[in-house]
Amino acid sequence: MTATETLEAPATVEIEHPHHRKLVIMAWSGDLDKIWPTFILGTTGAAMGMDTTIFFTFWGLFPLVRNDVHITGENWMQKMMSMMNRGGTDHLGLSKMNFAGMGPAMMKKLAEEHQVASPCELLEVARDLGVHLVPCQMTMDLLGLTKDDLIDGLEDPAGATTALLQAQDAVTLFI
Amino acid sequence: MSTTIVKTLDLKGLSCPMPIAKTAQASRALAAGDLIAVYATDPGSVPDFAAWCETTGNELVEQTEDGGTYRFVIRKR
Which tens digits make up the pLDDT trace of B35-53? Predict the structure, then answer.
């Protein structure tokens, strides 16, 4: 480099919106205290204009089971599993201090007092704001869950590839 | 630019994320440039509305507080 050579400043790139415009949440847990923030974040992402997808896998699929469905599954193992771990947003346990259902009851009472929207309400808002709710096909097969067992307004079941494709240019959370 | 508030939302008492979520839902029916007034009591809504406006491009025109009630006036982008 000679002394006369001037260094040109790199061209500035105009970034109109520096924020991530996509949010992907891998909902793995079916615990009330984990699916609740999942729905809070998903709803908020959509409210912020982010293209939001929640991919429900393993235990995370149980909150999508209809509240009026008691037993799911085709064979005795799947049925027994659903009896021990009933699905639906009204029947979820806490990851800590569950106390055979007393913990969730207290948590719901507190939420009501503080006007914290329930997972059920949040799901409704999430659907209204266009959050893509994608059940994992493999988990549905594994647990013997059918589309009829699950709530309305879900996208077609998909696999890990779909989830990771969505996640490529997104803020991704695993809850 | 219009200075008339075309929509008022009373979201007092609601906790996160409902003030933002309900504002987002209501703002869909508004035209660009319309003003919306939101009343909330959640103290977290103060940083949240600022963040929401920053990411969505809506403009936080006015923010006041009176006895624990916050009033946000937002211009839709």
Answer: 999 999 999 999 999 999 9
**Into how many domains does chain A fold?**
1
Q: Is B53 a catalytic residue?
A: no
On whether the CB atoms of residues A47 and B24 are closer than 8 A, the answer is yes
Alpha carbon of residue A161 to chain centroid: 17
Q: What residues of chain B lie within 8 A of the CB of A50, using their CB? A: 55
Asked whether A149 and B41 are in contact (CB, 8 A), the reply is no
Q: Are residues A129 and B24, on separate chains, in Cβ contact within 8 Å?
A: yes
Could you tell me which CATH number the domain at B5-75 has?
A: 3.30.110.40
How far apart CA A167 and CA A170 sit, in angstroms, is 5
Tally the residues of chain B. Answer: 77
Q: Is A120 on the interface with B (CB under 8 A)?
A: no
Q: Which residue of chain B comes nearest to A18, CA vs CA? A: B55
Q: What is the CATH classification number for the domain harbouring A61?
A: 3.40.1260.10
Does A169 fall in a domain?
yes
ipTM attached to this prediction: 0.88
A162 is a domain residue: yes
Where are the domains positioned within chain B?
5-75
Query: What domain range includes position A48?
Result: 22-174
pTM, two decimals, is 0.87
pLDDT tens digits, A7-64: 665 555 544 555 669 999 999 999 999 999 999 999 999 999 999 999 999 999 999 9
B13–A contact, CB cutoff 8 A: yes
Of B16, B17, B56, the CB nearest to A49: B56
Nearest one of A175, A128, A116 to A152, comparing CA atoms = A128
Rounded to the nearest angstrom, the minimum Cα separation between A93 and chain B is: 22
What pLDDT digit, counting tens, does each position of A112-129 carry? 999 999 999 999 999 999
